[in-house]
Design goal:
Radius of gyration: 26 Å
Number of strands: 12
Mean pLDDT: 91
Helix content: 40-55%
Strand content: 5-15%
Distance between the termini: 27 Å
Strand order of the largest sheet: 3-4-5-6
Shape: elongated
Low-confidence stretches: none
Number of helices: 19
Length: 430
């Protein structure tokens, strides 16, 4: 993974923590979790407080994610809200943290001036043993603590202030007044700085999880849909009137579900022409075929003349694989009719032609699912499905790894938002 690290394609955009007082605060949170404090003088953290250096030091990449549920978090600074989440068992962990941090921004700003915030994103399940455990989680609650218990002391001080206002003789209690003064030394003026998060319960909706080899849950008003490998424990076992189960290997039914629930854009000239979507897919499959034909070839300097020559001289191989000629036929149909009759396209090839509806709340998750059906498109895999990309990357030979990294650097990393907007019509999100 060193090549990915060196090019910020894994653990990129993390926040460096070097100040001794912040490191000590981080250690207080680690101790509170029953973990060994770090001896490192510099670490990098993501939105949740996860640090790859700490994971290496502890020998546990799941030190903030035990059992893959009830995710822990450590907040040292409000700056974390703008960071990614780079290690998680649930795709919506990042969004849940973003919603919590933005909804409680004033409290977090005040608390992190003098303390570290830590805790868990709690749900009703301690361990996931089958699909029903996942489906039982409808909402999560942030259990919020701080090392110096500033939140608890602020709550206690607020209670005493209320008593002072409401009980006529309370001001005579010298001990209580002195205690209020001691609490205020820690909390400051709580009339000006709110120190207790008010928004701690959030909806747990559509997501991907790494449990059972990778599983998707989509939530609609009258039905929840699970898409996974049928070998997942609990598949098709419970609540058929509420839960629909689809095999991740069933192209036809998965595509039909996405179409009927309005989650995908069908191939029409109105968006395909300006996005270059089919050209992108064609380029991805050609690069795959060239690599398969000659695994030692350096592909970083391909030009149009060489590529056209290769296509002509390897026509049999290209036709046998079939994807490139299919995409060319679809481009011709699109140019002639302005759309493609998707029902006439074989189920195994439909995902080559569609993308998530950009304005649908599940657009990122849907694009992630589509990437599972088009694994050769490593660009889309990296954008929407990093866990899948990193898994694929382990099997790449050194030449292909270098090529993939250079492609990502020269295209996606130069303008991430522009790339996502052009190909997938997506705006940035939190």
């Amino acid at each position: 993974m060193n090549l990915l690290l060196d090019n910020e394609l894994i653990y990129g955009r993390l926040l460096p923590i070097e100040e001794p007082h912040l490191t000590e605060r981080y250690n207080k949170a680690l101790r509170a979790f029953g973990l060994k404090p770090t001896t490192l003088t510099r670490i990098d953290i993501d939105r949740s407080g996860f640090s790859p250096q700490i994971a290496d030091e502890l020998g546990d990449p799941d030190y903030l994610d035990p059992n893959g549920v009830n995710r822990r978090f450590i907040i040292l600074t409000p700056q974390q809200v703008s960071l990614p989440v780079v290690h998680t068992a649930f795709s919506n962990t990042s969004q849940l943290l973003y919603e919590f941090m933005t909804a409680n921004a004033r409290v977090i700003n005040a608390l992190t001036i003098k303390d570290v915030i830590y805790g868990e994103i709690e749900d009703s399940v301690a361990k996931v043993e089958d699909i029903e455990d996942l489906l039982s989680v409808n909402q999560v609650e942030f259990r919020v603590l701080s090392a110096e218990d500033v939140t608890g002391k602020a709550t206690e001080l607020a209670t005493l202030i209320d008593r002072l206002k409401q009980e006529p003789d309370f001001w005579r209690d010298t001990g209580a007044l002195e205690h209020m003064i001691e609490l205020a030394k820690v909390t400051g003026d709580i009339r000006q700085n709110a120190l207790v998060p008010e928004h701690i319960v959030f909806r747990h909706s559509a997501y991907w999880t790494s449990h059972f080899g990778g599983l998707y849950v989509f939530v609609d008003p009258n039905m929840t849909t699970v898409i996974s490998d049928p070998s997942a424990p609990g598949f098709r076992r419970s609540r058929p009137w509420q839960v629909s189960y689809l095999s991740l290997h069933d192209h036809e039914r998965v595509f039909r579900f996405l179409l009927e629930t309005g989650r995908i854009e069908l191939p029409r000239a109105s968006w395909i022409d300006q996005s270059g979507y089919l050209e992108h897919r064609a380029e991805m499959v050609l690069r795959k075929l060239i690599h398969q034909s000659d695994p030692s070839r350096d592909l970083t300097q391909l030009d149009r003349v060489w590529l056209q020559t290769w296509i002509h001289s390897h026509a049999d191989q290209i036709n046998r694989e079939g994807t490139f000629p299919f995409l060319n036929a679809m481009k011709r149909e699109l140019a002639q009719y302005g759309q493609i009759k998707i029902d006439e396209v074989p189920a195994q090839k439909r995902f080559l032609l569609v993308r998530a509806k950009p304005d649908h709340p599940d657009a990122w998750l849907t694009n992630r699912l589509i990437s599972d059906f088009v694994p050769f498109d490593f660009m889309s895999r990296y954008v929407f499905n990093k866990q899948g990309f990193y898994r694929d990357y382990q099997d790449f030979n050194p030449v292909w790894r270098r090529h993939v990294v250079e492609m990502l650097k020269d295209t996606y990393l130069k303008d991430k938002a522009g790339y996502r907007r052009r190909l997938f019509g997506l705006k940035d999100r939190g």
